[in-house]
Amino acid sequence: MINKTQIYHIFILYVILPSIFSPTIFNLNANKSIPEIYYQNLDLDLTYTYNVSKFDSIIQWWGLQDFCFCHKGDAFVPIGGQIKITFTGFFTTAYYEPAFSDPSPHLNVEFVGNSTFYNWSNTEVGGVLGCGFNSFYPGFLIPVNNLTGVKTEALKHANPLKEWHEIGEDIVEEYDSMIKIEFHSLEEDLTQKILIYDKNTGILLYLNREDDVPSIPNIEMSLSGYNFDYQKPAIPSYQLVIFLILISMISIAYINILRHKIRIRSF
Predict the structure, then answer these.
(1) Which one, of 116, 154, 112, 108, lies nearest residue 135 by Cα?
(2) Average pLDDT of every residue of the chain
(3) What are the pLDDT digits (tens) for 230-240?
(4) What does the alpha-carbon distance between residue 107 and residue 50 come to, in Å, rounded to a whole number?
(5) What are the phi and psi torsion angles at 10 (to 5°)?
(6) What is the DSSP letter of 141?
(7) What is the rounded CA–CA span in Å between residue 163 and residue 161?
């Protein structure tokens, strides 16, 4: 027979608790709008698959979630394995300052055949996997309507802004369809990060993280099926510049001659 205490517990479990937490859960699942700074046609239902070519030790996933900085689990992918990410939406970052602005991307990260971490902010995932440096962790997605701002933010964080930041050199290169951000530490740990993003969608295309600290895994992965094009933006060739200068000089000389003839005739 069910006594009053059991009825009370059932009431708390199935009535009170859902009424408290369901609005939060609903908002997390319902917010699928894309902020203006990001690619507006980003497919939030698409799974992005990364082929792993380097992953030399286990990642310990620590993070702030549910008001607790806790060890959430471990992750590992063998060489030849895959990491899959899916975006869950754009939400206000509860614990970490986002790399750009709120609302920021949140995503699920699946280490295929090992473990999955659900609904973490882009900044937090970037911090765990090393998609960034110092306090700049652009993670798996960058804004596309202000690439100049992205470059400025990256270059700013090459210099220490906080006591625990590394002194480093930052290199930003643009290609026709991609932008590459490199960070090279000038300190003893020899940290190096290379991040490549698609300029049209803002999606992370390539990550290479190298660190000589044994507890930090070295990772290299690239977006499956993407054709990397390292063609630089077109600029006028040297010969074309010379030709244009000559044309300009000839045009100016011809105009001056005409003016001189007109003056002679007027006399």
Answers:
(1) 154
(2) 79
(3) 887 765 555 55
(4) 14
(5) -65, -40
(6) B
(7) 7
